[in-house]
């Protein structure tokens, strides 16, 4: 017999398929080429069972969702004190590509905006940018539960057009937040954003955080448990950029979105959620993705602030 949760997700997917608001991201030219109709929802429980509906096997680039997981790797590698000298934890209330730096230290306000993510990527373990890339790749693979690959066309497209991110990197170099060659470090950031995932992968990544850092199927510990709540805290306040306040108010879950159309949401101790639909609102969040999470929060009581 079909589980009630599967039946519920199928009905929700059907209902929200008629939502056609939003636009594909086009500032990275290659992202404008994806099929806008794709739509998948996947929910993973703490024993690793996945409930999936729609295009949950379709690949897309992870984009900014990677920021939360690379931040986790940086905390694990360098410890909280050191990481705090490079990037803060205050919501910026600004767009994801804003140049929100601390006026004196130059540290970006948080690791979920581009400036903070570029700083974070530059400090993961590794003596060279190549070694650091291997660390990022391994960290992402542990969260996902299998090896990762990169969409080279998206990566090239982003590198060719990413002048704003380049400017941010030089600002970070100016403040000594990024050390070494800022362009080589930035290429790692472009590459991490171009990692290919599907909706199911996102749900397992979220479930790993929900499960206090241990992947529910592989049982691999991805980061020390004391850092899991730090990562979730920053996702809750900063994960949805300048929509973060409304998101916490209406949905009430730590989450992270990316301009590829993915969203991960975490209900600690219970579920990891992955949603994929590439049409975005003006803040760069998936329109259907937000709607799915609002509905899940309301219909099955996933708000972390709710009593029941
Ligand atoms: N790679 C994208 C960028 O740096 C990520 C942005 C996003 O997903 N919000 O612009």
CATH architecture heading of the largest domain: 3-Layer(aba) Sandwich
Please summarize the sheet with the most strands: 5 strands, antiparallel
What is the CA-atom radius of gyration, in angstroms?
Answer: 18 Å
The residue fraction in helices comes out at 40-55%
Helices and strands in order:
Layout: H1 4-16, E1 40-45, E2 50-54, E3 60-61, H2 65-86, H3 114-121, H4 129-144, H5 152-161, H6 163-174, H7 182-193, E4 196-197, H8 199-210, H9 225-238, H10 244-250, E5 255-257, E6 262-267, E7 271-276, H11 287-299
Antiparallel strand pairs: 1-2, 1-7, 3-4, 5-6, 6-7
Helix pairs in contact: 2-3, 2-4, 2-9, 3-6, 4-7, 5-7
This protein binds glutamine.
Keywords: Acetylation, Hydrolase
Family: Belongs to the glutaminase family.
Subunit structure: Homotetramer.
What do these coordinates show?
This protein is an alpha+beta fold and 308 residues long. The chain has two domains: 4-62 and 196-299, Beta-lactamase (3-Layer(aba) Sandwich); 65-193, DD-peptidase/beta-lactamase superfamily (Beta-lactamase, 3-Layer(aba) Sandwich), CATH 3.40.710. Helix content is 45%, strand content 10%. It is built from eleven helices and seven strands. The chain has helices at residues 4-16, 65-86, 114-121, 129-144, 152-161, 163-174, 182-193, 199-210, 225-238, 244-250, 287-299; strands at 40-45, 50-54, 60-61, 196-197, 255-257, 262-267, 271-276. The chain has a five-stranded antiparallel sheet with strand order 2-1-7-6-5, sandwiched between helices. Strands 3-4 form a two-stranded antiparallel ribbon. A hairpin with a 3-residue loop joins β6 and β7. α2 packs across α9, α4 runs parallel beside α7 (182-193) and α5 crosses α7 (182-193). 53% of the residues are buried. The mean pLDDT is 96. Bound molecules: glutamine (GLN). Glutamine is lined by residues 63-64, 96-97, 114, 158, 165, 193, 258-259, 284.
């Amino acid at each position: 017999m079909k589980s009630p949760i599967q039946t519920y997700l199928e009905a929700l997917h059907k209902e929200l398929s008629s939502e056609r608001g939003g636009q594909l991201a086009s500032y990275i030219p290659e992202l404008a080429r994806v099929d806008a109709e794709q739509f998948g929802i996947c929910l993973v429980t703490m024993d690793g069972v996945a409930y999936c509906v729609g295009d949950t096997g379709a690949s897309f680039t992870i984009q900014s969702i990677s920021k939360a997981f690379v931040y986790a790797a940086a905390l694990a590698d360098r410890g909280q004190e050191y990481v705090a000298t490079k990037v803060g934890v205050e919501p910026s209330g600004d767009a994801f590509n804003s140049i929100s730096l601390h006026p004196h230290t130059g540290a970006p306000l948080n690791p979920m905006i581009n400036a903070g993510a570029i700083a974070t990527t530059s400090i993961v373990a590794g003596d060279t940018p190549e070694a650091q890339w291997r660390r990022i790749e391994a960290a992402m693979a542990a969260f996902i539960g299998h090896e990762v690959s990169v969409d080279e066309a998206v990566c090239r497209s982003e590198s060719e057009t990413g002048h704003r991110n380049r400017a941010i990197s030089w600002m970070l170099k100016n403040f000594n937040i990024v050390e070494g060659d800022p362009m080589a470090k930035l290429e790692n950031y472009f590459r991490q954003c171009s990692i290919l995932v599907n909706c199911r992968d996102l749900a397992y990544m979220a479930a790993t955080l929900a499960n206090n850092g241990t992947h529910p199927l592989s049982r691999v510990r991805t980061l020390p448990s004391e850092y899991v709540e730090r990562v979730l805290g920053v996702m809750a306040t900063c994960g949805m950029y300048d929509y973060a306040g409304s998101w916490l108010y209406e949905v009430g879950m730590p989450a992270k979105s990316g301009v590829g159309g993915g969203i991960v949401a975490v209900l600690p101790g219970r579920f990891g959620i992955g949603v994929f639909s590439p049409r975005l609102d003006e803040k760069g969040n998936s329109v259907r993705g937000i709607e799915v999470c609002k509905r899940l929060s309301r219909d099955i009581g996933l708000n972390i602030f709710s009593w029941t």
